[in-house]
Amino acid sequence: MKLKKHIIFLAIFISTTVTFSIIAYQPNDIVVGGPNFPQLEYFIEELDLISKQLDIKIEYKTYNDIETYLIENSNHSLDLAILPNPQGAVNLGQRGITVPIEMILDDVYIKENFSEHLRSITTSKIDNLNYGAWFRVIPNSLVWYDVSKYQDLGSPVFNTYEEMIDFTQQNSLRDHPLWCLDIESGASTGWIATNWLEDTILHKFGPDVYDAWFKQDKLSSSEEVTLSILDIGKLIFIENAVYGGHKRIVRKEFRNNYRNLLDNEIPCIFTWSGHFASYYFPETAEYGKDYDFFKLPSKNYKDAMVGIGDVVITLNNNSNTIDVTKSLVSVDFGKNWLGKNDSQYISANMNSRIESLKNPMIIKETNLIKASFKKDLFRYDASELMERRIGSDSLWYALKKYIELKSLYIDEVTEELDSTY
Questions:
Q1: I need a labelling partner for 55 at 20 to 30 A (CA). Which of 112, 222, 238, 306 fits?
Q2: In terms of domains, do 368 and 235 share one?
Q3: Does any domain span residue 14?
């Protein structure tokens, strides 16, 4: 009798458990994969809003290397992915893993909302198909400064790179250098110097030369690239201009710059860095009060901007995937995120609505980005677009060598770069 009651109870328990499991289980309608990045929680909040608007469930899964994961796992369950590089979108598209973006978004919409350069670098040169829609961008071409030291200096405004160099020459004194320029980053030392070179090429010679260079149609020994490298030297080799001297640059960690900049015991006032600098200022420091930035000045291309960004790719073209993709790259995406006081989001859509944006630092950066989009003067980080053996290994090494050995060895540096093309 007891055994019978036990069996009946067990049957009821199993039946109830299965019933509630079925009721509770709601399959994900859309699964998005991508990297873990700052303010991911705000992005997920935006996905939740899209989920409610479309009446579907959306899940975001993080991967250390989403591109490799998609290549190695043909049976994945992802519908969309966020890629931190445009060449990844092209690579996956040429492998037949991702869907051409023209199958998801109207071609007119793409051309009206995304710059020609951004469209071109997600388009395969093999099949001429575009495989990515741009999600967000992050600026590089910035000069950061300590506000109080800058004011004590007279709050100088530079209209050209040459004006900035002249001012540095005239105001750098023994034991009073104006610049903190450390770039050491372990095995990756050199990547910040590639940002400097990208900035100088684009701001000095414009987008056509920049594009020819990253496509490796223009050698490093060409006049434009050589002069751009020498322009970096015009700054870093000025006597007394750099804290610790030019040889310190490649030997001390780049994170030092932002702490040193705000240290009253250290005289340097400026550092040449991208948006990433904002992550390394002391937590007690406040943007606008303690530190600020201006865009790298240029005589002929004052709205030029180098940066990086994320691309949305679609892995199928079902109706839900299409709807979510359209939401992610729309002019209205991120309204809630933009409304956060600490928002770091800058849309890659050049017509994005930013009325709800509150963070003054991001307002300033966004306006610079929009100005560069308007004239198609935004350019993606060239070293990331090059073959890795060149854009990373060779370029990093060559610029480190140049910084340590000075302009005397410019021919050796450029010839060495050209030999890797």
A1: 112
A2: no
A3: no
